[in-house]
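Hello Y.,

Per our agreement to keep a running log of every chain we model this quarter, I'm adding this entry. I've kept the format consistent with earlier entries: sequence first, then predicted structure.
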Amino acid sequence: MDKRRSKRINKRLAVDFGTNDLQHTGITNDISKTGLFIRTTKFYSPGSIIKINLLIPNNGSTTFTGRVVRTYKHPPYSSLAQNGVGIELDTTETSYLTFITSIED
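Predicted structure for the entry above:
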């Protein structure tokens, strides 16, 4: 049984993120109204608050914050594994929520 609060959408979008500045880059793996997974090799501890700038196709970008809830670090020889961080969002950023609504089935 899936315990997620919102439906996840498999979507690859570029993101810049960091705790103070947007000094790191990654790609979303899936997104929803309440969270997203960023594929990256830069990791933060669970509980860390990070700033995220998401590039929205045809609409520019939107910036919001989220809390790291999971970190996935797999060994280098595990080529099928996806390294990254799971982020819980608490955003009312209109452009982000409008975008998510527009791509939901």
